[in-house]
Amino acid sequence: MIGVQNVTKYYGQVCALDDVSFTVKSGEIVGLLGPNGSGKTTLMRILTGFFPATEGSVHVAGLDVATSSLEVRNRLGYLPENVVLYPDMSVRAFLHFCARVKIDGAVQRRTNVERVLSECALEPMAHRQMGTLSKGYRQRVGLAQALLGNPEVLILDEPTVGLDPNQVIDIRELIKGLGGKATILLSSHILHEVELMCERVVIIDKGRILAEDTTDRLSERIQGAATVRVRASGPHSDILHALRALKAVEQVIKHDEESDGPEGAVLTVRSSNQDIAREIAQTIIQNGWALHELRPVTLDLEALFVRLTREEQKEAA
User: Fold this and answer.
1) Radius of gyration of the chain (CA)
2) pTM of the complete model
3) For residue 312, is pLDDT > 80?
């Protein structure tokens, strides 16, 4: 649904994007992450036809953005980083104005406006002038106009910025509910929100893609080994010996502070074998011990982001 192929963008002599390529499948929610100045907003503006790439190609909904810009814009909704609104217009009047640009038919326009007012919890503010709104409500208006017309593709630049915690939860659930119905590419500095909303992440820094995958698979690649948490009942020393004897196990750590006496040993197992969990389960069960917990331990998105961007900084130094 979104295809970015070898995109490079120069501002004069400054390279903002350097040979960027990635795809977003139909119905997928993908997070675009990067520090300030990484090229996220530039990339989103190219995707929406705001300005062209210097080199490379971009396709949205099967259409080339460079040659079919108007058709692409008819199929997508865009929430820019800085929402520009008309301060003297009411929220409802502004949404009707946007709907006239996007949607044919008065009935369909009215239906769409009322739908997005409800979805973005803007009904109490519908008659308020936008110049009197808080930043959080202005952000909601920006998201509401992006949702008009049920676009196939949504490009959302910092969709939850300026919202209070309850508003963030509401918008997060709204965006997650759109998954499968619309293809969504969103950027955010709130890494926890991205982790909750997105199926995959694309991490960009200094105009180049550093990584593209699910957080679990990125964690495995960066850690270089499978890490598994185990909780089992049985003689602690025997469990330790049995797990350390498994082929490809590199380290077994016993967490004394969590292990409750003679039963319930809590261990962390590191192995070069990505399928080590199966062998651990078989070993514990075959020895007649009780297996209470067996789960992978992965880096969270914040740790992945910091690790990748700091390694990039070290390589550039």
Assistant:
1) 24
2) 0.73
3) no
